[in-house]
Amino acid sequence: MTFFQDFKQNITRRHFFAQGSNLLGTAALAALGGAGILRADEGNRSGVGRQSGALPPHFPPKAKHIIYLHMVGGPSQLDLFDYKPVMQEWYDKDLPDSVRMGQRLTTMTSGQARFPIAPSKYKFEQVGQCRMWMSELLPWTKKIADEMVFIRGMHTEAINHEPAISFIQTGNMVTGRPCMGSWVSYGLGSLNENLPTFVVMVARSTNTEQVQAISARLWSSGYLPGEHAATQFRTGGDPIFFLNDPPGVPRPVRRTTLDGLKSLNQLNYEALGDPETHTRMQQYELAFRMQASVPELTDLAAEPESTYQLYGDEARKAGTFANTALLARRMVERGVRFVQIYHNNWDTHSNVSGRLPDQCRDVDQACYGLVTDLKQRGLLGETLILWGGEFGRTIYSQGGLSKENYGRDHHPRCFTMWMAGGGAKGGTVYGETDDFSYNIVKDPVHVRDFHATVLHLLGYDHERFSYKYQGLDQRLTGVEPARVVKELLA
Fold first, then answer.
1. Helices 321-333 and 275-298 sit at what angle, rounded to 10 degrees?
2. At what angle do helices 352-376 and 321-333 cross, to 10 degrees?
3. Is 468 helix (H, G, I), strand (E, B) or coil?
4. CATH code linked to domain 50-488
5. Is 139 helix (H, G, I), strand (E, B) or coil?
6. For residues 121-126, average pLDDT
7. 89 closest CA partner among 352, 395, 356
8. Are 84 and 436 in contact, with CB atoms under 8 Å apart?
């Protein structure tokens, strides 16, 4: 007895009727709309690369692509964007209870005898027509301040890295849900049949004093079909494992092998109806096409010298943040929908003066180069750039405190992110915190609001952008209230 015969013999009545529950309705729909309506999704199922997504946008999108620059560990808003000159007078004084208001602290500082105020040691100046305060650590980024929207009132409930990163990436503190890139892939689909819809790169940090663990759980497709998971590009060696033909296997043999696998998988799909079978078929076909497209994408030899004047010489070195930023521009040019870049080591519990300058040097000119390059090429208007971490840092010092050095613990109550391009309202400063950069006093933006706003720029109403799973219409923004922050939109 074959596996398929065994499957038919043992199928339950309940399963049988569930599989056929929509048969009559489908037949009636076909009669009304013509047989072609049943083949409407064949282009999406062929494995040749989808040109349209599962859900058409609800209204005209302003952004077609996203480049998400995630600073893993939580950048210090106090030392970069949230200028608090009054804190100089509070040096080494205790954080008032009226400001902390009984906030739960991490185990790294909850046992401290006191919470001494640590003013930023860095100089700030107002830049651009928006007059945004920015640190001396970001001299290149200052030049594009009027292209950026600064959200100074971001906040979250998560106080530790794993739930906080998961929350801002997937909308849920529990890992295993679809990330933002997977939602974009599911909704909008592909613009290029020879490259992935969603790509992830993990850039190398110059300073590796305290690197956070991150894993592919952050860029998985969760309960969405597997085709919407990210393809990770390595930042050293071959960009993708096993992409090249094995030794002794010429390209015609590889093609014949894939055709045979596709036929077998198609038979398996027709027998069992498992959508992951189609995911596997599409992955095989995409991998075959990427054998030609990826080497061309990652070959920077044709880039002119002016490119490196924008991004800096570090862009020549594989694996640097500048190099991944340049690759992100090349991917967007070729139709990749969503590019996620992770840059690690922003978790400055100690030695801020020793680590933060290194972190900023890694990303500063590269961010300037990316925004400027996209603008020069006419791509910034349709490419939304997101920059930020999973939470902020405390005004009080963790561990030893001096005028020249200090540490900062995790702080979920307020932090700063910025956006540029893709329909964001450049030159906007939104949100305000108290003198301690501890509590938001004006225009808060929750992580769910941030997600709703990003989806809006892509043309989706976050309350209607959903996927049926376990009997529920699952959403990136979840079931709690979320709003589109229209003040951030151009």
1. 110
2. 20
3. strand
4. 3.40.720
5. coil
6. 98
7. 395
8. yes
- pLDDT tens figures, 393-409: 999 999 999 999 999 99
Residues 180-215: b if buried by 16+ CB within 10 A, e if exposed: bbbbbbbbbbbbbbbbbbbbbbbbbbebeebebebe
Confidence label for 36 from pLDDT (cuts 50, 70 and 90):
very low
Longest alpha-carbon distance in the chain: 83
Top pLDDT among 267 and 141 is at 141
Give me the phi and psi of 267, to 5 degrees please: -60, -40
Helices 251-272/3-10 angle, 10° precision: 20
The residue behind tokens 């596996």 is: 3
Rounded to an integer, what distance in angstroms lies between the CA atom of residue 227 and that of residue 217? 15
pLDDT for position 146: 98
Ramachandran angles phi, psi of 107, nearest 5°:
-70, -10
CB within 8 Å of 199: residues ≥ 6 apart = 230, 231, 232, 233, 331, 336, 338, 339, 340
Domain locations along the chain = 3-40, 50-488
Query: Would you call 213 helix, strand, or coil by DSSP?
Result: coil
SS3 at position 126: strand
How far apart CA 47 and CA 49 sit, in angstroms, is: 6
Assess contact for 220 and 209: CB atoms under 8 A. Answer: no
Nearest to 347 by CA among 314, 416, 394: 394
Closest CA to 183 of 40, 348, 66: 66
Length of the chain (residues)? 490
Cβ-Cβ contacts under 8 Å for 244 (sequence gap 6 or more)? 238, 291
CA distance 252 to 249: 8
List, in sequence order, the alpha helices (H) in 139-274: 161-170, 180-188, 251-272
Structure tokens at 321: 């943040």
Residue 19, classed as helix, strand or coil, is helix
Which long-range contacts (C-beta less than 8 Å, at least 24 apart) are formed by 468-477?
469/223, 470/223, 474/177, 474/223, 475/171, 476/170, 476/171, 476/178, 476/180, 476/183, 476/451, 477/171, 477/448, 477/451, 477/452
Give yes or no for a contact between 444 and 487, defined as CB atoms under 8 angstroms apart. Answer: no
Cβ–Cβ under 8 Å, residues 474 and 468 = yes
The two counts, helices (H) then strands (E), for the chain are 14, 17
Q: Where are the alpha helices (DSSP H) in 20-112?
A: 23-33, 42-45, 77-80, 97-100
What DSSP letter does each residue of 413-452 carry, written as one string?
Answer: S-EEEEEESTTB-TTEEE-EE-TTSSSEEE--EEHHHHHH
